[in-house]
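Section 5: illustrative case.
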């Protein structure tokens, strides 16, 4: 065979080898592309694109329905208060201005009925500011959702033609048990990029079920509800709050979620209003106060703290202030020391110092159920770095409204859920932001906020709501609030709910036992044991333990 005859044969062999290797290399690419297509075509989205958590099988929060022959969407998910029957047209009207509100139960307006939450109170003002447009304000906030779950709702909202989204989130960031892993920055960035792939998210989620099950949270219902209740009853300091690295990861995750929502909205040309989160500072004690002192320092702290509490009870706030400062110098992380310091300052008329102490007590709570100031700082920081994000400082508005005192039951039904007045204040604050940012156009700048008339709903008369509130107060050891509220219902409202007299008796006796101990005049041991057993029965059996008020005369 001549040289010229061999060359075509060698060239053919080279091409075949190249085609073989090219085909071999393309197999995994084709396999991955197939998996990616199948994952994206799944009826429910598989695994959220959150590099911090593995949230499997994200549901559709809205379902298509026909109303009077027209296509609509209905809120279908139970944790988005589907019982409220929220519906809206599938296609926004040509002259429509569609607003969505997302967040937790405070944003949802619980327990106020539809039409009386903060978003509903915003709607008349928007309609007056935009007289030539058809305004829709749709509240799709959820029960007990952390920001990473709120984002799942937000992502589906972005498919529904919003013109504006308002986000009120931050009270539930420590709600679910999970652990953040320490990863190198390059790995974090790589995971964030890879998480854009549905197939990668599915593979990671399935493997994480075996490797890191503590981060593989369900999507349909929140996990660890029983753990959450137990941890509060037992006053367990959560690792997410006590471990400084885990706390920083919670804060970073919160910010990541806010930025992801703002950036997605920016790509769609949609402005976002971020709401700073107001909470009950004055009338809600910290759930867990951390104290890790031992030995002589622990004994010295105990004596000093008790001295401060006793001085406050005896009407000597000056002595209480001195004692609490001594206690704080020994253990500066003890939240209750700051709470009672706030009370002592308030009693002396030093209101600014009182508010600062209450805020510090809230931030040091080691089983937090209220947004800390460190989360509100992240909200402001995210807005500062994104042109389409604006801050509605509702936290600041509540502080101003309650001034010179800290916000308490004047604006809240419990720890975070506003009264009707609080909801209206939040709506008015958000409307002012929209006007100042020219998001409603220059003609809207002079439109006054359209305040609604008096509410037709009275939560104090709603026994189901009051039962829930009493349980929440007990769950979080707000014994003074239980006693005060029960006395109010019995004496002022003449409520005939069967459990009320016994509820008042159990918790007022516990407070009496605590106060006598602080003053150095403790109850007899047998009586203390009886009071403690009654309290334990409430936690074990709930209201069934309070069903027989025969031995409990009214207060």
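Designed sequence:
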């Amino acid at each position: 065979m001549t040289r010229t005859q061999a060359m075509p044969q060698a060239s053919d062999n080279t091409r075949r080898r190249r085609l073989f290797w090219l085909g071999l290399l393309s197999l995994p690419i084709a396999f991955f592309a197939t998996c990616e297509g199948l994952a994206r075509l799944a009826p429910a989205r598989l695994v959220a694109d959150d590099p911090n958590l593995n949230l499997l099988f994200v549901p559709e929060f809205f379902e298509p329905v026909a109303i009077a022959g027209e296509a609509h969407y209905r809120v279908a998910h139970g944790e988005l208060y589907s019982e409220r029957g929220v519906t809206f047209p599938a296609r926004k009207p040509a002259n429509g201005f569609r607003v969505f509100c997302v967040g937790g139960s405070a944003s949802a307006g619980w327990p106020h009925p539809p039409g009386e939450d903060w978003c509903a109170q915003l709607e008349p003002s928007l309609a007056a500011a935009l007289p030539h447009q058809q305004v829709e304000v749709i509240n799709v906030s959820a029960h007990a959702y952390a920001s990473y779950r709120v984002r799942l709702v937000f992502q589906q909202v972005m498919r529904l033609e919003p013109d504006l989204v308002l986000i009120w989130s931050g009270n539930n960031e420590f709600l679910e048990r999970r652990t953040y892993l320490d990863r190198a920055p390059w790995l974090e960035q790589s995971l964030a990029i890879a998480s854009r792939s549905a197939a990668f998210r599915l593979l990671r989620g399935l493997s994480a079920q075996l490797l890191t099950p503590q981060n593989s949270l369900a999507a349909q219902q929140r996990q660890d509800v029983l753990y959450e209740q137990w941890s509060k009853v037992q006053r367990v300091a959560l690792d997410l709050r006590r471990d400084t690295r885990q706390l920083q990861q919670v804060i970073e995750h919160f910010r990541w979620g806010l930025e992801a929502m703002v950036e997605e909205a920016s790509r769609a040309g949609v402005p976002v209003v971020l709401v700073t989160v107001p909470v009950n500072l004055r009338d809600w004690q910290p759930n867990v106060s951390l104290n890790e002192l031992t030995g002589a320092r622990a004994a010295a702290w105990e004596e000093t703290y008790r001295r401060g509490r006793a001085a406050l009870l005896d009407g000597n706030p000056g002595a209480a202030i001195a004692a609490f400062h001594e206690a704080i110098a020994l253990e500066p992380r003890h939240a209750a020391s700051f709470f009672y310091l706030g009370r002592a300052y308030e009693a002396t008329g030093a209101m600014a110092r009182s508010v600062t102490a209450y805020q510090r007590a809230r931030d040091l709570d080691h089983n937090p159920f209220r947004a800390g100031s460190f989360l509100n700082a992240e909200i402001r920081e995210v807005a500062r770095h994104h042109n389409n994000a604006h801050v509605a400082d509702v936290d600041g508005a509540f502080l101003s409204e309650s001034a010179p005192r800290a916000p308490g039951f004047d604006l809240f039904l419990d720890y975070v859920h506003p009264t009707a007045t609080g909801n209206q204040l939040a709506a008015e604050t958000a409307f002012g932001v929209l006007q100042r940012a020219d998001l409603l156009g220059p003609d809207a700048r002079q439109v006054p906020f359209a305040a609604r008339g008096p509410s037709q709903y009275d939560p104090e008369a709603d026994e189901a709501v009051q039962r829930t509130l009493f349980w929440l107060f007990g769950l979080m050891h707000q014994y003074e609030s239980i006693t005060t509220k029960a006395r109010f219902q019995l004496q002022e409202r003449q409520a005939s709910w069967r459990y009320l007299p016994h509820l008042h008796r159990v918790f007022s006796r516990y407070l009496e036992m605590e106060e006598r101990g602080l003053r150095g005049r403790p109850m007899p041991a047998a009586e203390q044991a009886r009071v403690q057993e009654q309290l334990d029965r409430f936690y074990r059996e709930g209201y069934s333990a309070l069903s027989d008020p025969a031995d409990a005369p009214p207060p």
